[in-house]
Amino acid sequence: MVLHINGEEKEFPDGLTLAALVAQLGMKPDRVAVELNQSIVQRGQWEHTELHTGDSLEIVHFVGGGSGRELQVRAAPGGEAEQRSQVEDSGEHDWICQTCTAANRSAFCASCGEKRPGPYDLSIGHLLSHAGETLFHWDSKIFRTLRVLFTRPGLLGAEYVRGRRKPYVHPFQVFFIANLLYFFLFPVLGWSGLKTPLVIYQTDMSYKEWASRMAAHRAAVKGMSMGEFTRHFDHAADVESRSLVLLMVPLFALAAWVLEWRKRRFFAEHVVFALHFYAFWLISILIILYGGAFAVLLALKPWIHTVSFQHLDLRLFEVAELIIAIYLVLALRRFYGDSVPAAIIKAVLLAGSTYWVLQAFRFVLFLTALYSA
Q1: What is the mean pLDDT of residues 343-370?
Q2: Three-state SS annotation for 297-357
Q3: Cβ count within 10 A of residue 26
């Protein structure tokens, strides 16, 4: 769609909101005022104000220093080259933007929104301050993305496929942020999680007898005692599980592709859906549900003797499957446009598939750790 911004026509993807436009222009929301079709739009309404072709906007920057008055960002009608020439001829420009080479007099580039370089930009204090604002500002991409991930299932994927990508973190980045949070927190929570020590393979898996024989054979080949090999295996499983967790994404995407084959979607679209789902799964199910429950049980263990880890694991599995199914119903409706009955059926099937995807992950992890221990 075509928008008229400060008198200049520019093209943007359809369905853009005012908040997304400001983010796409690289401007800080707390320093911007916007007039849409000759009406001021309050900042609290930006997220809900959708833009349409032909809309006219005036964007104003509030710049600190000097008189403290606002400075309106307006492009010269002759384009970037003419604008630069006019400002240079007048002798009034203060700096040249290093991003787009436009001449400017304001603290922000009128052409691309780049901030004017300052003498302290490369100081440690400024660097840490900018990093903190980028990471922890509530309206930053990370927090905005995580907020949408949990409150509007399927929307991140739908927006990415539609082409509205600037306001959010890339799907792979969302997954790796969740992965990083999980592997940073699970040792603190006192739960083994995905790393799956050798004793689990020898006692709980359907192939436990075969796993025990393979482990004994590998220990003999390497000339180790079983206790020593177990320590090496557990360490290898811990290390390898951090990267192999990505294996679950294409397996889940394959299940989604089978269920949604009539939609004729690209397989990459199912991968996007799977990346966002497993980001949600890692944070909500593994960290909050399982990790939190096991941390509480460990803390209360001296006073509670009737609840076992096995019993707790079974109950948590049931709760997790219910949470996953509800989340998937909402995500399927928003991402694939499924009807309510179809979304419920597919959500139940996909929720069940997460168990088999997890078992496939653990089998590959066993083989990897077995031969790298």
Answers
A1: 94
A2: HHHHCCCCCCCCHHHHHHHHHHHHHHHHHHHHHHHHHHHCCCCHHHHHHHHHHHHHHHHHH
A3: 14
pLDDT of residue 78: 43
Say how many Å lie between the first and final Cα of the chain, rounded. Answer: 56
Q: What pLDDT is stored for residue 89 in this prediction?
A: 44
- Where are the CATH 3.10.20.30 domain residues in the chain? 2-136
What region, left, alpha or beta, does residue 102 occupy, with left being phi > 0 and alpha being psi -120 to 50 degrees?
beta
Q: Are 241 and 365 a contacting pair, CB within 8 Å? A: yes
Mean pLDDT of 115-128: 75
Whether the pLDDT of residue 258 is over 60: the answer is yes
Lowest mean pLDDT among 21-25, 126-130, 141-145, 165-169: 126-130
Q: Return d(Cα 291, Cα 178) in angstroms, integer.
A: 14
CA–CA separation, 158 vs 333, rounded Å?
10
**Cα separations in angstroms, 159 against 114, 120, 253:** 26, 37, 18
The answer to whether the beta carbons of residues 327 and 153 sit under 8 Å apart is: yes
d(Cα 320, Cα 312) in Å, to the nearest integer?
Answer: 12
Is there a contact between 325 and 333 (Cβ–Cβ < 8 Å)? no
**For position 306, what pLDDT does the model report?**
60
Kindly report the pTM of this predicted structure: 0.63
Beta strands (DSSP E) in the chain are 2-5, 8-11, 32-36, 39-41, 56-62, 70-72, 95-96, 103-104
Q: Which two tokens stand for residue 109?
A: 């580039």
- What sign does the dihedral 248-252-254-255 (CA atoms) show? positive
Q: Which CATH number, 3.10.20.30, 3.40.50.20, 3.30.390.30, 2.60.40.10, labels domain 2-136?
A: 3.10.20.30
DSSP structural state of residue 291: I
pLDDT at 182: 81
Residue with tokens 């959010």: 168
Whether 92 has a pLDDT exceeding 70, the answer reads no
Is the predicted pLDDT of residue 153 greater than 90, yes or no? yes
